[in-house]
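Lecture notes, structural biology module. Today: joint structure prediction for complexes of two components.
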Amino acid sequence: MAKPKVAFFDFTCCEGCQIEFTNYGDPVFLELLKHVDVVEFREAMSEKTKDPIDIAFIEGSFSREADRPRLEEIRKRAKIVIAYGQCATTAGINALKNHTSDYRKFVYGKDAALPHLDSQIAVGVDQAIKVDYYAFGCPVNKYEVLQIVSHLLHGKDPVIPNYPVCVECKRRETICRFDVGDYCLGQTARAGCGAPCPADGIPCEACRGFVDKPNHDSLVKVLDKRAGMPKGWAQTKTRMFTANQRGDVK
Amino acid sequence: MSKTLSIAVHHLTRVEGHGNIEVDVKNGKIQKCEWQVPEAPRFFEAMVRGRHYTEVARITSRICGICSVGHTLASLKATESALGIEVSEQTFKLRSLLKHAENFDSHVLHVYFLAAPDFLGAPSVFPLVATHGPVVARALRLKRLGHEWGSLIGGRTTHPTKAIPGGFSAFPTVAELKELKAKMLAAVPDLEETLKTIAALAPAIPAFDRPTEYMALHSQSGYALYDGDIQTVLPDGNKKTYKVADYKTCTNEYLTAVSTAKYTKNRLGSYAAGALARFNNNHEQLLPEAKKVAADLGLKGICTNPYMNTVAQVVEIVESFHESLALVDHFIKNGVKDEPLAKPTRFAKGAGATEVPRGILFHEYEYDKDGMCLGGNCIIPTNQNHANIQKDFEALVPKLLGEDADEKKMELRLEMLVRAYDPCISCSTHFLDVKFIR
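The predicted structure, tokenised, for the full assembly:
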């Protein structure tokens, strides 16, 4: 059987998730190339193809109407589309401006109306095209990506956790951030990363987004009452990576 | 000569972010010659408003996936300057070690994966797996070393986690540092082979000189990377220094119609940032090992050939490697203390700068009395290079026309020129006059 053709595409993002793909080092990367053919990857290669693609990794948010035709064209060519990284899944950090309406003016001042500076609110790519699987994280967890690829190569559905990061902290016996006077979003954050941040002494910021149906009201209460956040911060805390999952997007 | 040609490279490959090259020549006359940036704007300066000071570096590290260590560090320095935080000597040294890891890692990526295929006549590194297997495996080994070295100090290299305002949230153990040192020493043969590979490719570097101004950090204590004052040098060796707090007086941003990114200029119509700019400013302070590599590869200050930026990166790979070995040895000898974070002493406005692989990077923020951010400004190296790239184009296209270059050759030369700058365009798409709204 011919090796599956894999391609990477980037939209509004920092391209860090593509960089994670180069961080495997020699043993994993060279092994991976025995099983897939990378046919398009603008950041690392000049080759382009018009052929059908087996797996398309799409990085970045859908933040300009002008990008829709390119997304649709990728969907047409690809058997499987994976939203790759948080910008592509929920718009991640790009959505941090979505509750404001003055961001263009704030950054570009009197030039804000220039057409090439056009930008709408940032959303995940599934708002433009159908997405088959999601690789969460800012950046993606590169070992989870390997697992997703491996599952697909074996004809299986990848298993993506839908339980909170607290579960993973308990498993590795990490001291709760609240117990040391800090805050944490682990109660509602989607696990799958292995909870490295609390283990390194820093709160979870939910960079993989929320679990399905998070209890946001309770989270705000805990941040307010138990972590004692400065006035108003508990309410706005979850805008950082999960702004589009809060329900107050303009 | 009455040549007619048209070049339209949309979304240049093997660079980070989106850039276009458009050249139109009719009957020997240049109608259009543009380096354009069509990247989607991302509005980071608007996004940091209302965020707590502990969140700001986490947010702005997301400006760029390749230089996210540098963005984190520049952001932390700006926040710490605004908050009157003085970090310990240990933090300074650990951050320097993290900064060197990023420089090493990113330069390996650029030299091997983004620039080298042009010299080997390949469209990318992937076909080279079959034709130059050992070279690709070596590149991947060095890339892994840079990633593991940075991850040990920063938590990870894409959006580091452990470097936070006031210091670090977690520290490497001496055992881990010994392991890192062993890995580094094991990479020495790979480094030596790298120098041989580059020496073999160096004669193919295009000859093209366009004198310009070069801006970089400068420090009394050694070849500046993590810290220093701003310095610029003109081709005649004339140097000028500026305090980081006065960065706006030497960056002078302006907006153009072809780019979502702003341009900058200082004493001349444009200036360059990056490895070559650092080399031109500070080459006398390089370690002997790096000086030797520069001499072996024919790089002399002040070099005005922008294509030589890639060679300057190789020199810096060696500089970062040896400087870091010394830092690792220091920590193995003296141990690493589990230090508490240095605390804010005020809430005001402050700027910070660090060198990232692509050049000097500025961040600036202002905070209210609760530590909430009122606004920010970021000036990214690739933005500082856009005007210089444009001016290189304007000098290079007539030169290539004079050499009777065909469309294919001109396109490759222009692409190689842009790649030599190692642009990081996805970072470079936002900014302007800071307006601190109270």
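Point to remember: The longest strand of chain B covers residues 359-367.
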